[in-house]
Amino acid sequence: MxxxxxxxxxxxxxxxxxxxxxxxASSETLAFVDQxxxxxxxxxxxxxxxxxWAMTTRFQADADVVTFPGVRCHPLDxxxxxxxxxxxxxxxxxxxxxxxxxxxxxxxxxxxxARFMDVDYQRxxx
Length: 126
Fold this sequence. Notes:
Layout: E1 2-3, E2 6-11, H1 16-19, H2 23-29, E3 35-40, H3 48-58, E4 65-72, E5 93-101
Parallel strand pairs: 2-3, 3-5
Antiparallel strand pairs: 1-2, 4-5
């Protein structure tokens, strides 16, 4: 799903080899997107609340963000001008970011989502 230069990508795999993420491949596939969020298969990439939950519970900024400075992205992005940042050398250049909100493979068993009890909400409408 792409929303205004933001992509949410679901990553599947049951072993560390199929789950290994190559940010360059993702970056080349979604060339016009300057922010990508990677989530596991238990997260609905079309539900912004679910994606934010994954970012809140699975993302560590010191280890899970990959940046690609000095690349071209969406040509209509107004923030891609030298006046926005000293790191932008010319118009149309930006810094792409990939946020890895997936669970490390060896810790997957510790990241089970909480199950909520079923609630009989009809009793509140009588």
